[in-house]
């Protein structure tokens, strides 16, 4: 019984994260919009809508988390390497793939 309780307590936070899908729009506005523009059309950073928003999911994740673009080239500063950073609301924890996917899905809905 004790072991069961420990298992439940350990799984509980995961279950909560899974129950609430990440909000791609909020994550984008808080962490990306200042460089890539409010509508993903570009600013100091390149436009993402109609470009990286259409990349394969794995390529988009790699660009955001590891700083490597679709051609295999390293992305230059000031594009952050998010794998070694954290989204504002994540309090120091590196972004998850689910969060990055949610941002791409949000960008995909923008025209
Ligand atoms: C401080 C400014 C800045 C922030 C914040 C930023 N980026 Fe970037 N991003 C850039 C710049 C500049 C480039 C271009 C780098 C290069 O060409 O080498 C870039 C490139 C990219 C690329 C590759 C685009 C392409 O066509 O090659 C993707 C994808 C990307 N950023 C996604 C994001 C996402 C998603 C976020 C938020 C989680 C974000 N960026 C936050 C500045 C930023």
Automatic annotation (TrEMBL):
Domain of life (superkingdom): Bacteria
Annotated Pfam families: Cytochrome_CBB3
MF terms in GO = electron transfer activity; heme binding; metal ion binding
- Note the InterPro entries from the entry: Cyt_c-like_dom, Cyt_c-like_dom_sf
| Domain Cytochrome c: from-to ranges | 19-111
Sorted keywords for this record are: Heme, Iron, Metal-binding, Signal
Instruction: Tell me which positions the record assigns to the signal sequence.
Output: 1-19
- Please name the PROSITE patterns in this protein's record: CYTC (PS51007)
Question: Does the record's keyword annotation contain Secreted?
Answer: no
Quote the protein name from its UniProt record: C-type cytochrome
């Amino acid at each position: 019984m004790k072991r069961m309780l420990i298992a439940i307590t350990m799984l509980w936070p995961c279950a909560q994260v899974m129950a609430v899908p990440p909000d791609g729009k909020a994550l984008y506005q808080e962490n990306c919009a200042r460089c890539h523009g409010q509508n993903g059309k570009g600013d100091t950073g390149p436009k993402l809508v109609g470009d990286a928003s259409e990349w394969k999911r794995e390529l988009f994740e790699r660009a955001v988390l590891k700083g490597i673009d679709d051609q295999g080239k390293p992305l230059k500063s000031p594009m952050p390497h998010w794998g070694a950073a954290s989204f504002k609301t994540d309090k120091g924890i590196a972004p998850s793939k689910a969060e990055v996917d949610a941002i791409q899905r949000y960008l995909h809905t923008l025209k």
